[in-house]
Amino acid sequence: MKKYVIAVVLTVFSIISASAQSKKNAQVSVLYQNYITIKTALASDDAEKASKAASQFIKSSSEVNNKIISEKELNTLREDAKTIAASKNISVQRKSFYQLSDQMIALAKEFKVSQNPVYVQYCPMAEGSWLSDESKIVNPYYGKSMLSCGNVKSVIK
């Protein structure tokens, strides 16, 4: 009987642990897709496209329920996205992308943002991380000048 109780308790804990790591939320997944569009634009050295993608990110963030992500966290995400959206200078956009990436990495660890693996990538030259939906390095901090600089730090499944 004691073994049975222990087995049940362990099963319950593993179910709770697995569900905590894989909270799926469509609103957060949309933010992730908007983020990937910003990253792709920066990697392509396209400030205009990055600006438009950041504007879409801001719009999507306003649709996220603040019971899912706190209003404080949402405001921080929006501030970085607003800087990217307002600027046509890719260097300025990339500076804001550092913080936006750090926040999105935290969200990707908390929520299941994609059905596919999400790659946390790092560029030692830029000293910055970002998320990617593919393992191939496409560096948003240096774009075409150092497109493949970096490595995969971890994979979020």
Architecture overview:
With 157 residues, the chain is of the alpha+beta class. Helices cover 57% and strands 13% of the residues. The chain is built from five helices and five strands, in the order H-E-H-H-H-H-E-E-E-E. A three-stranded antiparallel beta sheet has the order 4-3-5. The chain has a two-stranded parallel ribbon with strand order 1-2. Helix 2 runs antiparallel to helix 5 and helix 3 (47-61) runs antiparallel to helix 4 (71-86). The longest helix is centred in the middle third of the chain and has 21 residues, at 90-110. The chain is globular. The termini are far apart.
List the helices and strands and how they pair.
Elements: H1 2-21, E1 23-24, H2 26-43, H3 47-61, H4 71-86, H5 90-110, E2 111-112, E3 118-123, E4 128-132, E5 151-156
Helix pairs in contact: 2-3, 2-5, 3-4, 4-5
Task: Please sum up the structure shown.
The chain has 157 residues and is of the alpha+beta class.
Q: Specify Rg, calculated over alpha carbons.
A: 18 Å
Secondary structure: number of strands = 5
State which percent range the strand residues make up: 5-15%
Percent helix range: 55-70%
> Helical stretch count?
5
Q: Quick one: biggest sheet?
A: 3 strands, antiparallel
Uncertain residue segments? 2-22
- In N-to-C order, the SSE pattern is HEHHHHEEEE
Average pLDDT works out at: 88
Distance between the termini: 36 Å
Major beta sheet, strand line-up: 4-3-5
What is the 3D form?
Answer: globular
Which structural class best describes the helix and strand composition?
alpha+beta
